TrEMBL record:
Phylogenetic placement of the source organism: Eukaryota, Metazoa, Chordata, Craniata, Vertebrata
Species annotation: Sarcophilus harrisii
Localization, UniProt: Mitochondrion matrix
Gene Ontology CC entries for this record: mitochondrial matrix
Family, similarity comment: Belongs to the iron/manganese superoxide dismutase family.
Protein name, per record: Superoxide dismutase
Gene designation per UniProt: SOD2
EC number: 1.15.1.1
PANTHER family, alphabetized: SUPEROXIDE DISMUTASE 2, SUPEROXIDE DISMUTASE [MN], MITOCHONDRIAL
Pfam name, any one: Sod_Fe_N
Length: 215
């Protein structure tokens, strides 16, 4: 998501995006989604917009109670931390899990682990798709790693709950199933979005995350 240079509330032109981006994008989240997010988020006067989700949190002013070590204030902020902090963690992972040149199948030890823990790559895809489609309301579907068991696991989280903070699983691949992730291209048909997202999964990134969390 690049800098839009527009003021708050001003939406970009339909279909606008990096030159040639549309032709490389056989999938999923068109540039329009990013444009809308960027225009929709409130921003203080004069602030830039390097990344929608980045600036969304960077703009939050420091709470006096929080900074002063006020434990009651810190406890009161936990729901906001869970939601906004979780959203930041989830989307930061999500962006790197995707690539316009993605798709296909993983290789090497990640593929071996998928076959070991789910039977086959197809069975894994079916299971993660079913779990993600089945999230009630807004949330995320995940492939995570249980370090104690040394096993891959599929899980879902509600809202913006972060996978590791909620389940202990180390996140490898997250699928955003908030309606904002797909409604511009797929309306309310979440299963169609889940079918298409496999075309843009960056398996190199997922494999790197798997290798890193095994160390
Ligand atoms: Fe999202």
């Amino acid at each position: 998501v690049g800098s839009s240079g527009r003021s708050a509330g001003e939406a970009g032109p339909e279909g606008a995006g990096p030159e040639g981006a549309e032709s490389r994008r056989p999938w999923c989240c068109g540039p329009r989604t990013s444009e809308l997010l960027c225009a929709w988020l409130p921003r203080p006067p004069g602030s830039g917009c390097g990344c929608c989700l980045d600036c969304r949190w960077r703009w939050q002013p420091c709470s006096a109670g929080w900074c002063a070590g006020d434990v009651t204030a810190q406890v009161a902020l936990q729901p906001a931390l869970r939601f906004n902090g979780g959203g930041h963690i989830n989307h930061t992972i999500f962006w790197t899990n995707l690539s316009p040149n993605g798709g296909g199948e993983p290789k090497g030890e990640l593929m071996e682990a998928i076959k070991r823990d789910f039977g086959s790559f197809e069975k894994f895809k079916e299971k993660l798709t079913a779990v993600s489609v089945g999230v009630q309301g807004s949330g995320w579907g995940w492939l995570g790693f249980n370090k104690e068991q040394g096993r891959l696991k599929i899980a879902s989280c509600s809202n913006q709950d972060p996978l590791q903070g909620t389940t202990g699983l180390i996140p490898l691949l997250g699928i955003d199933v908030w309606e904002h992730a797909y409604y511009l291209q797929y309306k309310n048909v979440r299963p169609d979005y889940l079918k298409a997202i496999w075309n843009v999964i960056n398996w190199e990134n997922v494999s790197e995350r798997y290798s890193a969390c095994k160390k």
